[in-house]
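[agent] plan:
  1. take the single chain provided in the ticket
  2. run structure prediction with default settings
  3. attach structure tokens to the ticket
  4. add a short note for the reviewer (M.T.)
[agent] executing step 1
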Amino acid sequence: MTVVDPASLDVVIATTLTGLAVGDEVLRRLHAQGFEDLRTSHGFVFQHLVAGPLPVGALARRMGVTQQAASKAAGELERLGYLERVGDPDDGRVRRIALGPRGEAAVRAGREVREGLARELADTVGADRLETVRAALVEVLTAVGGAEAVRGRRVPGIR
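[agent] step 2 finished; step 3 output follows
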């Protein structure tokens, strides 16, 4: 087996692998808090529902997937207790998908886990260095065209 020195990684691979490792750590901590059935892909659904309920068609458009795929993802999260179907205040025939109490708790827990991990990283590498990294990553995100998706909470799911 060939050993790879992380210090030898180019910036693109280092950024990608760091993002994956940090995401895995966040998920591990969420699992430890009782959200053991959450997967990274679920966050790509949650991001669209934080602002409020959506009809499945609107969710599909925001996610950039078919209505069938959005309905399938929502159905899974509903069975797991994270989402619920609610009536549309303007049209009784339409059902909207919303974060349920467990989904809202998972969003809060995710934010708390990320804040805690950021504090730990600041303790490890130094708050100033970590802020420099964060600012540089935001610049990179903008340079590769990803900032607009973040602004609109339309970060595409993992392909």
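[agent] step 4 note for reviewer: The CA atoms of residues 33 and 128 lie 30 Å apart.
[agent] ticket updated
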